[in-house]
Amino acid sequence: MVKRKVCIAVIGHGECSPELQETAASIGRCIAHHDAVLVCGGLGGVMEAAARGAKEAGGTTIGIIPGLRKADANPYIDHVIATGLGDARNLLVVRSADVVIALPGKYGTLSEISFALMAGIPVISVSSWAISDDIIQVADPIKAAQLAIEIASKKL
Amino acid sequence: MVKRKVCIAVIGHGECSPELQETAASIGRCIAHHDAVLVCGGLGGVMEAAARGAKEAGGTTIGIIPGLRKADANPYIDHVIATGLGDARNLLVVRSADVVIALPGKYGTLSEISFALMAGIPVISVSSWAISDDIIQVADPIKAAQLAIEIASKKL
Amino acid sequence: MVKRKVCIAVIGHGECSPELQETAASIGRCIAHHDAVLVCGGLGGVMEAAARGAKEAGGTTIGIIPGLRKADANPYIDHVIATGLGDARNLLVVRSADVVIALPGKYGTLSEISFALMAGIPVISVSSWAISDDIIQVADPIKAAQLAIEIASKKL
Amino acid sequence: MVKRKVCIAVIGHGECSPELQETAASIGRCIAHHDAVLVCGGLGGVMEAAARGAKEAGGTTIGIIPGLRKADANPYIDHVIATGLGDARNLLVVRSADVVIALPGKYGTLSEISFALMAGIPVISVSSWAISDDIIQVADPIKAAQLAIEIASKKL
Questions:
Q1: b/e per residue, A85-103, with b = 16+ CB within 10 A?
Q2: What is the CATH number of the domain that holds B37?
Q3: Can you tell me the ipTM of this complex?
Q4: With an 8 Å Cβ cutoff, are D108 and C114 in contact?
């Protein structure tokens, strides 16, 4: 029998500044350092930077993409889930995670936060949407990643 | 060839107070008076009250339900779309509308607002989530319904 | 309370011969004559011809389309359900019907037949896939439509 | 950058005989021996046996489940994708694979074959549905697994 690893989703802008990319990458590295799996939307911006960080630290990455072509995933994804469901794939990204870390993003990110909260999956926001007390606000990205690991480990 | 009618979604709590039900019903009646079609999630609370209002005024109602059993729809739905997709059906409710009217609701309502804004579908909020300037805030439900009809008519 | 009408899905090729179009249209007309609602995938070929037939006979038509743009539906659709789910919308077409009539089609049609049979929705084939004894084979399209109405009426 | 591994789906009955389980397990072992990833529907029967075989040979397994609870996956799944989409998750199983191996199964299996063929993903049948010349028929499970690896390797 498998001892399933903790799985953390990182969500946010599909296109973003070098600063936000570095924040995402540092979270990805921290997730991998703790031997957790990273899941994301598999495309660019925050998704790519987080996956790059996780791979730099020797981790495992899953990308759940909107289209049918696995080649559309960013080059840091180990396992591509090709959905063909368009933006509806947002639901799957958060539902496959034990905890969600939200970085700044627009309505796609907000939809993911909404569906995580509907499903009772904890959401940690690092300067992202602050629309509910159910979202845990953590300013520092490393502390956010560590808290995510801690909460997720208790759930398993 | 068909002259397609305007279609307005009404979203909000699945369980709600008599006051909120009356608000939803008045919006449903107004939509039907203007010969527009009402689309909703097909279950209880705001969904049922809005559909009841629309039928009282002789209108047409569509309910897009999470499950597979058409009998689970509320009794004021003419056309039941049985999805079997669970909460993912939220996306379809707003995508099938020309304009969305949001009444108070929780994360399900927020997910619907998010997906409407992602798809560029106008959202009018009547005391619902005020998380973006892209949402049109209208306090009076009848004025909200009239504005929805007006905006939707321009889109067709 | 609404007395819900019987709803029949017609599925088959998205591009087809004039003969197959006439078959689909005759089924659509028969569905409308019996005051039943037609549901289909909303695009061309069998879907368009069946919807045209239903409208010629004064019926009501629902089109569940793969994309987000309601304008992509064929011109004989009263109510467009815009899913944005791509071919996954095939599931919704059959799940929203009380009975499915299958005309010749390829793997999309086969996927719809499979999902109808999974959900226990009766399938009547008019020269379509004959891959199971659970599918009712009827050579004549009018008799197929009449049988569909009959079976669906018993379910309500 | 990641060198993405070949990914093979194994589909078939959710409940099955010890013989069919052994067939599925031998395919899973062969997939893992070739350093390929196994993807399946994550539940019992063929899905569980194939995943067990892959884990016995030190491989990696992905399970795409219909529900929201990751604990519902069988105990041989490394990465659980919790969809909440019900049977619509069938589409994702085949779309995430480079090649599909079909063992005996009912309409769920048929729906997966249909969607694989729609998406142009090769399907190898081991005593499963023989409804099209587009499906490659291979009687021996090990030869089927080897052929799947060979075809998938050419695609990458």
A1: bbbbbbbbbbbbbbbbbbb
A2: 3.40.50.450
A3: 0.96
A4: yes
